[in-house]
Write a structure and sequence with these properties.
By secondary structure, this protein is α/β, with parallel strands linked by helices. It has three domains: 128 residues, 3-Layer(aba) Sandwich (Rossmann fold), CATH 3.40.50; 230 residues, pyruvate-formate lyase- activating enzyme; 70 residues, Nucleic acid-binding proteins (OB fold (Dihydrolipoamide Acetyltransferase, E2P), Beta Barrel). A six-stranded parallel beta sheet has the order 2-1-3-4-5-6, sandwiched between helices. A six-stranded parallel beta sheet has the order 7-10-11-12-13-14, with helices on both faces. Strand 18 and strand 19 form a beta hairpin. Helix 7 runs parallel beside helix 9 and helix 13 runs parallel beside helix 14.
């Protein structure tokens, strides 16, 4: 079978950083003559780019592999290639435990995706694990997100070495992409119509330290602001111990940097934070939140907390609950501690019972639901700028996201058009008057074209 006849399908699992890796592999295969198909039943080879961060992610990857394996028996599928974090983490175990898999590529070998597909089409097995540092920080991509939104991955790996996290072991130490390279990538994304650029890394606030000897995230944002006209810039994954006054000032003064920041705190109990090997204790976290709220009163803070970390007492958990109640985070996600091989937390004493973890998770999320309800009610009567994403036939309403809603992880804004009003297209900015709340989402009425620099 020749390249120009073979069809390759992709399944990308896990985080947006993994999605960027998928987009780079898509471009490589396309340039090498393969046809990319969104239809799994038509594919000759399917590449599954996996996540391997926690148990639920690993199970999702395994389930996808088994589902796709059915196509080898009942359709024209000739092979399965597994890449990504699960492949890097478990390497030889995947083929041994899952004979359905025909090729496994570690992160450092994803540039060999064409070779892997060729081997599989020829009925051969393929197995390659290069150095983690060989994973490209930036190269040509086929953007798979809607044309108006995309991700800019500014670094790979992580140096934080939290006790619960396998990412440094899987993806290695932090490596920042050069600023010039990233600005050029942002320009290319602007050319294809991107209006919302989501800046991502394991720790965006540390960007540039390995290259330039100092944090350069503010300079990067300023250059993208100056050298492109992308109206919405969104910054994700900023750690509280690196929230500098300079970065806070950029949020305050840069109209195109959305008033939205993701600050993963994980916990607030000093004893838990210390065992987690988090950088900075409760004072650091409280100070970071207080400083940015004072300087940028309309800032939306998203955070992540973990319950059930080994040794977390009822008192520790109650301290976390009280902190969540006090801070009233506009966006919050929680997850229960997952005991991961190769992490420092795996062998810690005082592991928490699974049911206790679940109960604590339920309590935190119930509290956040009440906080979100109050927050959403406060939005009624306000006009907000919404990036339209489409039309929902079931509800008969258009939908999109405001500046306080990151793609895939946050809420939606539904809105109705007035009679004879211009129909918005995906990627249009619309001014919406909020009138109701529906669960976590907002419902409003279109008031005309919106100004992108909210």
């Amino acid at each position: 079978m020749t390249n120009n006849k073979a069809k390759v399908g992709f399944i990308s699992l896990g985080c947006s950083k993994n999605l960027v890796d998928t987009e780079m592999m898509l471009a490589k295969l396309s340039d090498d003559g393969y046809k990319i198909t969104p239809e799994e039943t038509e594919a000759d080879v399917i590449v599954i780019n996996t996540c391997g961060f926690i148990d639920s992610a690993k199970q999702e990857a395994i389930d996808n592999i088994l589902d796709v394996a059915w196509l080898k028996e009942h359709r024209s599928l000739k092979g399965i290639v597994v890449t990504g974090c699960l492949a890097e983490r478990y390497q030889g175990e995947i083929m041994k435990e899952m004979p359905e898999v025909d090729a496994v590529l570690g992160l450092g070998s994803e540039t060999r995706i064409t070779e892997a597909v060729e081997k599989v089409l020829n009925g051969e097995k393929f197995f390659s694990f290069g150095k983690k540092e060989d994973l490209p920080l930036s190269q040509k991509r086929i953007v798979t997100t809607p044309h108006y939104t995309s991700y800019l991955k500014i670094a790979e790996g992580c140096n934080n070495n939290c006790a619960f996290c396998a990412i440094p072991k899987i993806r290695g130490k932090m490596r920042s992409a050069s600023m010039d390279l990233l600005v050029e990538e942002a320009k290319e994304l602007e050319k294809i119509g991107v209006k919302e650029l989501n800046i991502i890394a394991q720790d965006t606030s540390r960007y540039g330290y390995d290259l330039y000897g100092e944090y350069k995230i503010v300079e990067l944002i300023q250059r993208i602001t100056k050298e492109t006209n992308i109206p919405w810039l969104r910054l994700l994954y900023c750690y509280p111990d690196k929230l500098t006054d300079e970065l806070i000032e950029e949020f305050r003064t840069n109209d195109r940097l959305l008033k939205y920041i993701d600050i993963p705190i994980q916990h607030i109990s000093d004893s838990v934070l210390k065992r987690m090997f988090r950088h900075g204790g409760s004072k650091t976290i409280r100070s970071a939140i207080e400083r940015i709220r004072k300087a940028v009163p309309n800032i939306c803070i998203r955070t992540t907390v973990m319950v059930g970390f080994p040794g977390e007492t009822e008192q520790d958990f109650e301290e976390l609950c009280q902190f969540v109640k006090e801070q009233k985070f506009e966006r919050l996600g929680a997850f229960a501690f997952s005991r991961e091989e190769g992490t420092k937390a795996y062998d810690l004493p005082d592991q928490i019972d699974e049911q206790v973890k679940q109960n604590r998770y339920d309590i935190i999320m119930k509290e956040q639901m009440e906080i979100m309800s109050v927050y959403n009610e406060s939005m009624i009567g306000k006009e907000i700028t919404v990036l339209c994403e489409g039309f929902d036939k079931a509800s008969g309403a258009y939908f999109g996201r405001g500046e306080h809603d990151a793609p895939d992880i946050d809420t939606k804004v539904f809105f109705l058009n007035k009679p004879n009003q211009k129909k918005p297209k995906p990627g249009d900015f619309v001014k919406v008057l909020v009138k109701e709340i529906i669960d976590y989402d907002l419902l409003g009425e279109a008031m005309g074209e919106g100004e992108p620099n909210v």
